[in-house]
Every structure is written in structure tokens, then in C-alpha cells.
Write a structure and sequence with these properties.
With 496 residues, the protein is of the alpha/beta class. It has three domains: 79 residues, Archaeosine Trna-guanine Transglycosylase, Chain: A, domain 4 (Roll), CATH 2.30.130.110; 126 residues, Ribose 5-phosphate Isomerase B, Chain: A, CATH 3.40.1400; 228 residues. 29% of the residues lie in helices and 20% in strands. The strands form six sheets. It has a seven-stranded parallel β-sheet with strand order 19-20-18-17-21-22-23, with helices on both faces. A four-stranded antiparallel β-sheet has the order 1-2-5-8, with no helix packed on it.
Length: 496
């Protein structure tokens, strides 16, 4: 029998239409027969009671806002009738919960690249990284010439990662640029890196070199364009040496405990919190039980569900760090005169999401039930294994770049609307619904929509885990096949 609706939590007073509900048909929820009063699109909410103005709308067992107007049972309720409960800064109390995953340890491995410093990468690529946007053209030309000269044999890719920053920046913006570029230089998915500077930029190459710290000189080199006669000739000379080293690297069996994944969602819809995000949560818990690491970011998309994360912090220090993570980002919005609940996007609303709380309660499911073991500022690198929280905005490009930069080998990106985007590590797209997977096969890597088509979540997760191991071992994601690889750096302040 086709599933027509889903009541997610026993406490909920709305249900989600799994397929379109037509006016006049009936559904039976908790033994009560409800007549559908109007056509309700798939992914959207139907009322299970009469709502008076001000009544809380409950989904996932938590309020997602309150009714702005009376709404009768059996009606479509969306952003036009629901208003967020979110406001300014809040005080929080630490109410720790006990976490027991009960997931057995399995001796699974993937084929990765063991680096000289002991770290592991899942790709062996050559990267050309500009210290400043002024040399973007040089970086692109060098990458293209090396690809033509070598055919890319022996390495997984040859890429230039251009950006607009590195000069005319002050304060935090300047530091953010330095941190992200440093993180890229040190990322184990790069078998070799050429850093290309101009020479007169704010992000001074010599200062940046010192900021990066100790590196393997056989694999990381610097070139200051103003100090060489022919930057293309000199750049190619350096790149040939780097290529000669990196192209000899080979994959070896590595324990799954070494894998680090970023958890990301974009273009959420009404199925996100039912299919793809819970799937990521189940995988995240599995990976952590194997000794691995997952990272959750998009802080504004935690608003409304933040207490769930706070209470899963392993200790009070982490709780306090999480409070700062949330309130600092709220302060960022408020300092610009913007409300903290100005979300979801038009695409989210079209897909069935009405408020930021609803989006957050779906989004935070990506990190499962594990303890929070670390909290990181933007641009910082991972220090502890297990579940980490990372400060970054909800913007897909900026958040995915931040996840890669903290040390994640790949980004697991759920989407109900679809996007071709990829950052500088494999960016795996997991669709929330089967229609999207069918319509965009060159964007979507894995379809979680089968979860509402009667495939058990556990079975889907087993297939998903196998696929992740394949990608970690070298299978290309769609963004890699297409060459869709970009970086985006968080900017807040003035430009000189």
C-alpha cells in the first residue's frame, strides 16, 4: 500500500504529505479519520487539529513556530500561516543526555594515500593556490599547461583554486582568507601544492609562508610573480618537480577510523528531515563508532534546534563553546540589523519548509545521536575525532569550503532541490526524493528518496556506507566528473 502521509513524532500536530493529497480524500491518523480540505503538495504539511491563532505548530516533536491565523483540521499549513518563534539572544542551561550508540566496531578499510606526516588523503591532486585574486589568471594558465603537458597521469586531478581575496582586506576578513588558504595548503587530499603570490598584496607571500608553518618542501612550493622574470616558465619548472613526486604516490588500505566527512545540506525540502538528513545521521553515528570523524556546520541552520546539540555536548566546556557558537552568530545577524529567523529560502518554502526552526530540526538530524566532542571557530582545523561543530554560515559555497578546510576528506551534501556545486574535496549529493534523482542524474550521486518508498533505513545506510568507501577509495563524484570545483571564503567587513 502506498504511503500517503507521515506523522514523524507522536507529539506532532501536523503530518507530511508523502505524495500529493487531493481535496476530498481521507487519511486516518492515530485512529482519527481526517478529510483533506484542499490539495496539498508532496513534502508539505497537513493539519491534524484545529489551530487557533498563537497555537504552537509541532513537528519532529518540537515547535516549529506558531499559527498566525486560525487553521482548520485537514488544511495545508505553510509559511503563510506559520510564524517563527525565534528572536534575539537566549540564555541556555546545560542538561546533558546520555548517549549510547550500540553500534558494533567493524574492521572496515578504504584505499587512501598515507602522507609523510601520518595524515591520510582520499585524493592525490596537484593544487595551485593564489595568495591573492590578482594572480588568478596565472594560476589557471599554469594548471591548464600542466594538464596538457602530462595528461594528468598518475594524479587524480590538477586544479587551480581561484578567489577574489588576499588584498584590500582588514581584520577578520584578512585572517579568514589566510586561514582558508593555509588549510588548503595543508590538506592531505593534495599530493602537491604550488602557492602563487603577486608580491605587493596584503596577504604577503613571505608572511603567509610563515603562517602556514612547516611543510614538506618536496610537495609544497611558493612563487612570487613580481620576483621572477617569466612567471609561467618559472611556475612550470616548479610544477614539473612537484608532479614528479606526487605522481608516484599509490593508494593503500587505511582503517575507516581515519575518514573525516563534512555534513551539509542545501535546498532543503519537506523530505530532507525524513530521508536524506536522518540517513546522514545514521552514517555519522556509524562512522564515529568506527573511530572516525564527522563535522556539522551551517550555524544559522541550527537556530531552533540548538538545545538538542548543546545537551549532547560531552562536557560543560563544550556546552559553553556551543552557546558561544550560536549566540555569536545571532549577534552577527543582529549587528547588521537582520532578524535571526530570516530563513528559509524561496526554494525551501516551495519544497515544504515554513520556518527556520523546521529547517533546523531537519538539518541537525545529519549528525545523528553522537556526543559533541569538539567545537571549532571558522577556518580552524580538526583536533579531536568524533562529532565536531564548526562555525560557518548557511551559504552552500562558504559552508562546504569551511568543511573541507577544517580537514574533511569529503562533503556529504543533502539536497531536495538539487545543485551542481562542488568544493575542493569530493562533494557528494544525496537527494531527499526520487524525482530529483531521476531528473538530475548528473548532479545526484545517491538517492535517499527510497526511504519513503518502503526501503528500510538500515538497508539504505548499508548501501550508502559502501558507496562512501568507494568514493574514499577513488570513485569520482559527479561534481568531480564535471570539473565543478570551487572555493568561497567568508567575508564580513569592509573592502579597501
Amino acid at each position: 500500500m502506498e504511503t500517503k502521509y507521515l506523522k514523524i513524532n507522536p507529539a506532532d500536530n501536523v503530518a507530511v504529505a508523502i505524495s500529493e493529497l487531493k481535496a476530498g480524500e481521507t487519511i486516518t491518523v492515530d485512529g482519527i479519520t481526517i478529510t483533506v480540505a484542499e490539495d496539498i503538495p508532496a513534502g508539505h504539511k497537513i493539519t491534524l487539529k484545529d489551530f487557533a491563532e498563537g497555537d504552537q505548530v509541532i513537528k519532529y516533536g518540537y515547535p516549529i513556530g506558531h499559527a498566525q491565523v486560525p487553521v482548520k483540521q485537514g488544511h495545508w499549513i505553510n509559511e503563510k500561516q506559520i510564524k517563527t518563534n525565534l528572536a534575539g539572544l537566549l540564555d541556555y542551561t546545560y542538561n546533558p543526555v546520555n548517549v549510547e550508540l550500540g553500534i558494533p566496531h567493524e574492521n572496515r578499510t578504504f584505499k587512501g594515500y598515507r602522507r609523510k606526516n601520518g595524515d591520510v588523503g582520499i585524493r592525490n591532486e596537484i593544487w595551485i593556490i593564489p595568495t591573492v585574486g590578482c594572480v588568478n589568471g596565472i594560476a589557471n594558465q599554469l594548471a591548464e599547461k600542466l594538464r596538457q603537458e602530462t595528461g594528468g597521469k598518475g594524479v587524480d586531478a590538477i586544479m587551480a583554486y581561484t578567489h577574489n581575496y588576499g588584498c584590500s582586506q582588514l581584520g577578520d576578513d584578512h585572517e579568514n582568507t589566510k586561514k582558508i588558504l593555509r588549510d588548503m595548503v595543508l590538506h592531505p587530499n593534495a599530493g602537491a601544492v604550488l602557492v602563487v603570490g603577486l608580491g605587493c598584496e596584503n596577504n604577503q607571500p613571505d608572511v603567509f609562508k610563515e603562517f602556514v608553518g612547516e611543510v614538506d618542501p618536496e610537495r609544497v612550493q611558493y612563487m612570487v610573480s613580481q620576483k621572477v622574470e617569466d612567471e609561467i616558465e618559472e611556475g612550470m619548472r616548479i610544477l614539473r618537480k612537484l608532479y614528479a613526486v606526487a605522481s608516484k604516490d599509490v593508494r593503500e588500505e587505511v582503517p575507516l577510523s581515519e575518514l573525516r566527512v563534512g555534513l551539509k545540506c542545501g535546498g532543503s525540502d519537506g523530505f530532507s528531515g525524513i530521508t536524506a538528513n536522518p540517513l546522514l545521521g545514521m552514517f555519522s553515528d556509524y562512522l564515529i563508532a568506527q573511530g572516525g570523524t564527522s563535522v556539522l556546520t551551517e550555524v544559522p541552520e541550527m537556530f531552533g534546534a540548538e538545545t538538542i546539540l548543546m545537551n549532547r555536548c560531552k562536557n560543560e566546556e563544550l556546552f559553553n563553546q556551543t552557546v558561544h557558537l550560536i549566540n555569536d552568530f545571532k549577534s552577527y545577524f543582529l549587528s547588521h540589523g537582520e532578524p535571526v529567523g530570516e530563513n528559509p529560502s524561496p526554494g525551501n518554502k516551495a519544497g515544504g519548509i515554513s520556518t527556520l526552526e523546521e529547517k533546523a530540526l531537519g538539518c541537525t538530524q545529519k549528525c545523528g545521536k553522537s556526543y559533541v566532542m569538539g567545537v571549532m571557530p571558522y577556518g580552524e582545523r580538526l583536533k579531536v575525532k568524533g562529532l565536531n561543530l564548526l562555525s560557518a554560515p548557511g551559504n552552500d559555497l562558504v559552508a562546504a569550503t569551511a568543511l573541507a578546510s577544517c580537514g574533511c576528506h569529503m562533503v556529504l551534501f543533502t539536497t531536495g532541490r538539487g545543485t551542481p556545486f562542488g568544493t575542493y574535496v569530493p562533494t557528494m549529493k544525496i537527494s531527499t526524493n526520487s524525482t530529483l534523482a531521476k531528473n538530475k542524474p548528473t548532479w545526484i550521486d545517491f538517492n535517499a528518496g527510497v526511504i519513503v518508498e518502503n526501503e528500510p533505513m538500515e538497508e539504505t545506510c548499508r548501501r550508502f556506507t559502501d558507496y562512501i568507501i568507494q568514493v574514499a577509495s577513488g570513485e569520482l563524484t559527479n561534481n568531480e566528473k564535471k570539473g565543478y570545483r570551487e572555493i568561497a571564503i567568508f567575508k564580513n567587513g569592509v573592502t579597501l
